[in-house]
Structures are given as C-alpha cells and as structure tokens.
Amino acid sequence: NGNDLLPLIASVEAKSEHPIAQAVVRSVLETHPDLVEAEGFEALAGRGVQGTVDGRLVQVGSLRWFKELGMDTADSETRAATWAAEGKTPLAAAVDGELMLLLAVADPVKLGSAEAVESMQAQGLKVVMVTGDDRGTAEAIAARLGIDEVVAEVLPAGKVEAVERLMASGDKVAFVGDGINDAPALATSDVGVAIGTGTDVAIESGDVVLMQGDLRTVATAMKISRRTLNNVKQNLVWAFGYNVLLIPVAAGALFPLLGVLLSPILAAAAMGLSSVMVVTNALRLKRVSPAA
Q1: Does the predicted model carry a pTM greater than 0.70?
Q2: In this structure, are residues 191 and 206 in contact, taking their beta carbons and an 8 Å threshold?
C-alpha cells in the first residue's frame, strides 16, 4: 500500500536538505505527523538517499539509480516519462531492495524565472540549464523558460564537466547554484554565484552570494557588475587624462609660451574637482535599476 510506504520514505527524506526531499516530507507530515527517525542515513550524490527505518532499508531517488542497482524499472519508465513531459520530477522508492513506489513531485517555476532568463539573454548571455534531474523534466522546463541549452541527468562531476566544456570553448562561465551537488561546479566556474537561501556547502563554494532566492537578482547582479566595471574604466580614463593635461600646466609648461602660471590655490582646487568628478560618476551606480 502506497500510503503505508509514505511514512518510511518521509523518514529518510527528512534527513536530506534537497528541496524535493523537503517537499515530500511536508506533504507526508500532513497525514502522518509522527515519523520514525531513520538510521544509517546516506546521501549518494546525483542518485538519491537511503536509510534504515524500523529495520527496513529504504531507498529514494532517481529511476536510473535503481536501474544501476539491477532493479526492473521498465514498467515505471513509461509513467515517469509522461510525468517528466509535464514538467514533473519522477521519484522512485524501494524497500529492502524491491522497487515499490513511483512519485511525481511538481517543482513549479519560480516567479520571475522567465523574466530573469530573458534579461540575461538581452545582456548577450547564453543561459544553460545543468541539472541532475530527469531529461524530460528539464527540457519541458527549459522550453517554458526559453533556455538556450540543457544538460540533464548528470552527477556533480557531470556538472563540473559541463562547466569545463563551456570554459574550454573560450567562454567566461558564471555558474548559479544552491545545492550540495552544485558545490563542485560553483568552485570550478570563473564565477560561482550561490543563492543565499540554499545549502551552506553551496554558499561556501560561491564567489558571490545572493541573499534572495529570486533568480532575477542574478540578472541584476550581472547588470551591476558590468556597469561597475565600465564605471571604473571611465574614472581611470578621466583621472589619467585630467592629470596628464594639468600636471604640465601646474609645472609651468605654458609660461614660456603664454606667460601663464597656475597658482597653488587653483591647482589644489583643480585636484579637488577631479576627485569630485570621479566620485560623482561612481555615485551614478546607485541609480542602476533591477534588470528587466
């Protein structure tokens, strides 16, 4: 009976930090508030989790994991493919080495995700989805959001390989992630952008940490970083040009020709004006609006 298995599954998933695992736990707690604590919990990166509940080995994860373990997944794969095409994530569960249950977890697209993808593409960025989830699910979500490329059903090492492949082509790669499985790719990429609402491991691995879980902040961060770099270049050009022109004047270069000398008072004022111009230009960054 599937309802009898749900508390076993939730007991194991309660030990996991994965968002899908937490969604399963929240759902089961509504009807089974008292869960038995799982023992010997183990998370297998990119595959699933397992633990012992009331003396029974409970495994929860992707169908491909159970296929690797030699279980018969043929009957489940058709249903899983149907769910994946609908943008749902198939999740299988086995008890004592026998495949018992297939679940579908709908991970709704976050508000603003499509807007974030569109904004990044408008900035000339190529958006690639790299995920360990089912390919059908990933492609359905990518089609909905207009994502350029999908790399699915990969383990954490596969995410690193995807990043390295993009970097090898000469592209600068910023990897955005929030999970334990994202940590290696975050550390490998040119810029690792960790979502602050994610796991501690991901946050520690990122070069940049965004405090909100809204993906639009990623596009905004990209926009601000570009504006900042351009602003730095403008200030350097202004400061060097200004000094190259006025230092000879202050040194008396115009005196032999025009009899003009720059008084120390005017020289100090000119120096102050240069600093005011640089600071004023930098303050324009405060007016940068969120990426649209």
Answers
A1: no
A2: no
